[in-house]
Specification:
Elements lengths: L5 H19 L12 H29 L2 H26 L2 H16 L21 H7 L7 E4 L3 E4 H13 L8 H18 L4 H5 L5 H17 L6 H4 L32
Antiparallel strand pairs: 1-2
Helix pairs in contact: 1-2, 2-7, 3-4, 3-5, 5-6
């Protein structure tokens, strides 16, 4: 009988534990936004373990070996690719003013910023914006669905999970000729993002709440803020726990270019 690899064994064990926990946690005690909390906590622990033994060490090595200007240029390059998909979302959401702004941003950075390696647009009144299919679905009135923590991906939800699949399918990286090129660019992007988050770990590890709750609330607050372009109505904020620790994230290096739904609340191991 073939031996299962350690990550697979850990995932199966956590799944088993989560199924048992589902039966032991009364439904009345669960957050209505998080009906699958036992399963989600199991996936959160799995992602934390994977980050601790694989992704974080690679990110630390990348951070040590990559000069800061090169690291910033790589982040800017991927950010410029994302800006191209933001334009599509602007159109789908009916935001003509933002379409003009984001087209200008892509043109400035692609031409004067050498294919996006340098972010010149931010200093030319075309700041970075974040849009994705999950936000577009929200604007269209699609319900958020239950909060979910997915293996290898992290915090998500029914609406954002479907949106993330479409985001990946429409990203310009998918236009590369060979699967090896696409895989290489994807790995570089993941490692670069994880390295950019190293400076933010202090906030997560010292959060007053337990890491799982903090990650959930940070994710839900950030998504709400993105959907309403930074100005969510008060009624939408009801039920969200106030996280003072989120204020500490402002100004941390690397966070400004993170735009995927699960970027902010990465497990801090």
């Amino acid at each position: 009988m073939p031996q299962l690899r350690p990550p697979v064994r850990i995932l199966l064990a956590l799944l088993t534990l989560s199924l048992g926990a589902c039966a032991s946690v009364p439904s009345a005690e669960r957050d209505p936004r998080d009906p699958y909390e036992p399963f989600n906590r199991a996936m959160f622990r799995f992602n934390e373990h994977l980050d601790r033994v694989l992704l974080k060490p690679v990110a630390i090595g990348y951070d040590l070996l990559t000069p800061s200007p090169v690291d910033r240029a790589i982040s800017n390059f991927f950010g410029n690719l994302d800006d191209m998909t933001v334009i599509v979302q602007d159109l789908l959401q009916g935001k003509p003013a933002y379409v003009a702004q984001d087209v200008t941003r892509v043109v400035y950075n692609s031409v004067f910023g050498i294919f996006g390696l340098i972010d010149v647009a931010t200093h030319m009144d075309a700041p970075k914006r974040y849009e994705d299919f999950g936000q577009t679905f929200a604007v269209w009135g699609v319900p958020a669905g239950p909060y979910l923590v997915l293996p290898l991906i992290g915090p998500s939800g029914g609406r954002d999970g479907v949106g993330a699949v479409l985001d990946s399918a429409t990203n310009p990286v998918g236009l590369l000729n060979t699967s090896n090129q696409r895989l290489g660019m994807t790995i570089l992007r993941i490692v670069d993002r994880r390295a950019d988050l190293l400076s933010a770990e202090r906030v997560f590890t010292t959060a007053a709440l337990d890491p799982y709750t903090f990650a959930r609330e940070a994710y839900l607050q950030r998504r709400l803020n993105l959907i309403y372009d930074g100005d969510p109505p008060l009624q939408e904020l009801e039920g969200l726990d106030e996280l003072d620790e989120l204020d500490e994230l402002d100004g941390l290096d690397g966070l400004d270019d993170l735009d995927e739904p699960s970027d902010l609340p990465l497990a801090g191991s």
